[in-house]
Design brief:
With 562 residues, the chain is mainly α. It has 3 domains: 240 residues, Serine Threonine Protein Phosphatase 5, Tetratricopeptide repeat, CATH 1.25.40.10; 108 residues, no CATH class; 95 residues, Alpha Horseshoe (Serine Threonine Protein Phosphatase 5, Tetratricopeptide repeat). It is 63% helix and 1% strand. It contains 26 helices and 2 strands. A two-stranded antiparallel ribbon has the order 1-2. Helix 21 runs antiparallel to helix 22 and helix 22 packs antiparallel against helix 23. It is globular. 60% of the residues are buried.
Length: 562
Amino acid sequence: MIFSGRTTRKALKPKTRLWLLLATILFSGVPFLSQEPQHHHLDAAETLGSVNFPTSCATTVQATFTRGMALLYSFEYEQAELAFENVAQKDPGCAMAYWGQAMSVYHQLWERPSKPTLQKGAELLTKARELKSAPREHDYIRALSVFYSDDDPNKHDARAEAYCKAMKGVADRYPEDREAQILYALSVLGSSSYHDPNLTSDKAAVAILIKLFNEEPTHPGIAHYIIHGCDNPQMASLALPAARKYAAIAPASPHAVHMPSHIFARLGLWQDDIQSNLQAIEIADKQAAMHVHTAHHKVHSMDFLEYAYLQIGDDADAEKQVDELAAMREQHGDADFMHDYLQTKQSTLPVVYAIERRQWKEALRLQPSSNVEPYAKAPVYWGHAVAAGHLRDAAAAQDALDHYDELLEATRKGPKPYNAEGMKQPGRVIEAWVAYAAGKEDEAVRELTAVADEQDKVGKGETELPAREMLADMLFESGKAQEALRHYELSLKTDPNRFNGLYGAAQAAGKLQQKEKAATYYSQLLKNCDGSHSDRPELAQAKTLVAGSSMRMHISPLSVVR
């Protein structure tokens, strides 16, 4: 989804979402020799991991080149580009310096490069091809040149797939070159589709990376890309070892410190999620004080923080993320991606804050800013539709759909029509709530079931509300507690430990006189929220029912909080 936490490879190439690192201390160490590859560990004052990427460039620039690769592997793109520019200045004949710069402006899992960026990359690679390089380096340069073969942003998918095929050739020709295997695996992820229910590309990439992880446990790219490859319900648990390790591999990278939270969020490990993002923001703030563009890092972590805080009932800290984000402004020098991302998240966080707390009227009062892109306004009307559905306000729900459709059409006709792809699934959720508000419950359930089934297979954004949980809400409010409980329990398998999922399951079980099951879900909810000092009525109810000698069977509806 365009406004989900997870960045969409086909729609945005951004789930989502973050690329710079300030390093004022020079990289130093043993230079790389192409004849005798050896591991090179970055200076402890700027710990970015262990990388082995020998080149035929001057030995005096090898340390700087390796530092650039370490930054690149952690998606610290801006600083990586600066490192490779430094290499080119000191050794103009180093072809790989220009390859590195071209790699730094291709953000494979975040966004589609703009036409000027594609032209820049093509120029850099033309220069690289004109210079003498070793056969292996020549192959790297030729492979990346495939991606920059034209400057039409709308042909991105075809170019990404062609680059992946070219990188497979490099990896096959140099089976002992781990860097080639890693970059090939990344290209597989960068060309994969979220519409594949079998997750074929993700599984293929992760199979390569896990083998390498066992051989090279301190390489930043390996751990990083395992997390991205497993960022879905089916595979998240496979990435937990990498998630536990990645922040320690590259603690100087805000993105590296944040990335484990993708897996923590998938697995419902909310305290780990919170700590990961608090630490990432601390690093980003320190860098911002040194005039480095870190706003995108902070926005991404604030998105995850709001969601995690809401899952433990900590509404006060969640609201702080909403308020602070609303006050943020784009900084001079921020990339085009940041423009879109900041606008979209400034619209999304207030919606999530209202809907997760089941404050339907509050959600309906939200209005998008007038001076933002059409796709950045979309989350507000998605929130209107969900809220209107719960309130059975057919007119408000239809109004939300009308506005959403207008924004979808404006996006299709705008400069980034590919963003419309990410708006399709949220649009289907809106249509389901419109039908529900109009009393067409069977139609609503069919539509939301289809979306939920799709999410179960291919995943959703880490900070996105599960369609299956919404389906369970819909069924419970319709008096179908047995069906609702089944869907709450299914949702808790793909999105464990969600506040509303646990509470909904407990209510449905209570309605069905399943006292032990209800108590289990209430107890888990209280455990998750322990220490959050939450004043949510749901928790007060849970405490009463768990503490009581017998559970009251008159369970209030899910909308009781409103």
